[in-house]
């Protein structure tokens, strides 16, 4: 019985990976993207994911993007903060440029990720993050330099949410850095 299911599982896995690759190829990249222009503080205005349970409003631990930095050699750092009851931790995720300008890749414990800077005027930014570990997760984020939604950018972002059948998720913004331990 297990041998009969083996080819079906391989086929399902192959189709799933092919679908994930197709989805990645369907995601646009900002033409003439300049990573240095996205450096600095960003606020999350909207967030959507391929899995509804990715971010729970009841979870006491909050993860938020604080800022984006560039490094010599073209790497990009995402500065994140985890905050919760008695917990405050800064985390930096570094991604490396790929052959496509505006696309980056990196790895984390147990998985890999692709990041695409979909669209930006450097005051607003639509960011796509594709995680692969035990499952494949897509995350779309609308960021801005100020906590003011531009209807044009919200509309553009919501088109992607609809096109890729995403679930809206709660948004958290955290001022950093964490206070020193006592």
From TrEMBL:
Superkingdom in the source lineage: Eukaryota
Name of this protein: Lipocalin/cytosolic fatty-acid binding domain-containing protein
Keywords carried by this UniProt record: Signal
Entry GO CC: extracellular space
Species: Theropithecus gelada (Gelada baboon)
One function term, GO molecular function aspect: small molecule binding
A Pfam family it matches: Lipocalin
Family: Belongs to the calycin superfamily. Lipocalin family.
Domain annotation Lipocalin/cytosolic fatty-acid binding: ranges: 40-164
Signal peptide as annotated in the record: 1-20
